[in-house]
Specification:
A: Dipeptide-binding Protein, domain 3; 11-stranded mixed beta sheet; 21 strands; globular; B: MetI-like fold; 2 domains; 13 helices
Amino acid sequence: MKKKFIKLMAFVLILSFVLGGCSQNSEEKTPVTDEKPTQTEADNKGEIKTDIVIATAVDFITMDPLDANDTLSGGLQRTMMEGLFGFDKDMKIIPLLAESYTANDNATEFTFKLKQGVKFSDGTDFNADAAIVNLKRMADQTLGLKRNSLFKMIANNEKIDDYTVKVTLNEPFGAFVNTLAHPAALMVSPKALDEYGKDVSQHPVGTGRYIFDTWSPGEQLVIKQNPDYWGGASEFTSVTFKPVTENGTRVAMLQSGDADFIFPVPSEQIASLEGNSNITVERRPSIVTRYITMNTKKKPFDDVKVRQALNYAIDKEAYAQIVYNGFAKTSSSLLAPNVQFYDAQKPYEYDVEKAKQLLAEAGYPNGFETKLWSSNTSTMIKATQFIKQQLAQVGVTVNVENMEVGTLEDKVTGYPVGTPGEESDIEMYVIGWSPSTGDADWGLRPLASTESAPPVSYNAAYYSNPVFDAAIQGALETADPDKRAEQYKIAQKQVWDDAPMLYLVVDDNTFAYNNKIEGITIIADGSMDLSGGKLVK
Amino acid sequence: MLRYIVKRILAVIPTLILISIFVFMFVRFIPGDPARRVAGPDATLEDVEMIRETLGLNKPVFEQYKDYILGLLHGDMGTSLKTKRAVTYEIGLRYMNTVTLTISSLVWSVIFGVLIGVFSGKNRSKWQDYAGMTFAVSGISLPSFWLGLMLIQIFSVKLKWLPTVGAEGFKSLILPSITLGASVAAIIARFTRSSIIEVMKEDYIRTAYAKGLKDKKVIWKHVFKNSMIPVVTVVGLQFGFLLGGSVVTESVFAYPGLGSLLIDSVNFRDYPMIQSLILIFSMNFVLINLIVDLIYAALNPEIKLQ
């Protein structure tokens, strides 16, 4: 009897420990507002915080602009280095180290006027020679750097005078200025390239607002103010970036003041921050477009009616709510609205009846069975279950296969070049795309042009349409924005109406910061923009 | 003694060679193409092929293995496919962090675990026992990410006593060590308890009590020492595991250790990094086993090293 009683007590003790912990957790969320004591403390001492800390989800990979393909590294490189062009907050192209440019009609010759009086942080002058050293490095396909192929169309660089450079391309490429706005085209000090060689990836030197300080991989990277920056020194004397994988920890860092800015803010944690008057949560649309490819070479997806039917069968608003906690907007083109030359299409409104009718017309009144591939992240597991449940409403049975990313890539791309879509195992595949140049070409060509079928690129729908292909090519053959816009309009309409994809949503980027700073933002491509960063006084 | 140690270390070499071959083969059997991972999510086939060549992944596997082993003999573990930095540099940065964290969690959890175990075992089926085992069960059952986040909420966000993340100085070690050590302390407590209970049944303990020795003396002089052998084994094993780094604790506290590095490398198919990490982990185990054997001999002179 006594023994039983003690056992019971022990059980109650454990239970109270665990539950006590839980309730503490939920209590934690409400009173975060009263964080003022620390703030007044700082005020009393009269200190103005000029060193700030930013927590990110992943670590940086490299500081060599030409060798980086993650947006995070790209964004950080932009704080230390600048290209001829850059993006503003809305991914509109702005001139940075170039003052202006002219191009010939068929987009093969571009002449750039460079900004004068700019110096790299190691004292080297930025001029035509420095620009050419960099352009040559970009075009050199023997270096084996990840982004070299973006610049393979550069044929020749010519110095007209100390501040004018003429670049000749070996084929028309209307999106060239966009490519030069890409983080891969940041200008590195020629002296640093000489001195460090390949190790420039650990010692970046540019003309930017900040100068590289220290980097301890996995722990932190520090940049400090460039007092001689041509656009005026930054307000922050230093910025420390810390990779913090765990979502909850990042949020706690902002709450405790250990970080001033965090990105990304996981959507399920936003509510816990929004009540806090010392913290601002912001969301801005990204250029990540989410969709499901359907193998257009296989039955039943060879019929456009089937593909359109599935587009009608999914409630995209609900998808954004359930999968992204509302932090996403429904797609209105294969391009996200912040991508250049985006053109809104007529949405496939959620309509189960219409979907059923189209399926019946296509000869599948009772639906069919198919399989859906995706990665196995928690978001994708939620997404695929939602899709399965929605498509079941129109009689389509979906067998979900969530796979580890490497396995998934092997399944999608593990065929020799030129394998027809009929022979691929792929049917439906949920994926997303973020065109890092912010240009329509990179948002459309890799996803839907005939030449881009796997394994060459990412047209996993094996979509092939001559009108689309011609428009994409036509747009590249001119540098005239109006003509390009016209071609991309045609391409977007074609791929929307043919529906080789089931168009889902465009993600939001969410980030949060405390009231000591303002102006740091996440631009649509998912990279951090510190250029407007200020202290709140 | 010294001869024994040298012999044991030499005997390890064939094991390590076998491990290196297995790991080398296994990482290449996992589906997923490192060249594609390195090339990035929006690379074309052309980029991928170019990168495969620069990374030397298009060479025959046998040749790749030969290069790897020749490199190892020169102390060169290759270059990380992900960051292009030397593997020895990347591991070196994190190795001491992991060792520091492991030792600091192990020290408190061994002291705490053994004390709880001794009191629970000695007072079997009394309230001290139930209290101790309640602690032990909670220590094992509380998920460490939950415990870690809870500690951060209390000690960093609310009280602002300790930093949330980092690996600088003693203060930043406290929360991760508690989180990492909680389950180890619990395991040690349970092992100690059962071992104490076993030893208490022995004839010589009865004799010790019979000849009128005080309780304290019996427990600490006779029971404790004799019941430590299984505990030392467990501590050794835990030490080995912890030296492999803890993914969960490291990611909750953004602590730059080996666990997150391994997971990251597996996800990235960073072959040289995976190979080297596994090899190092194996060597850790081998060394720890050796130390454990030496401690056995010290604890019980009947155990001879041969």
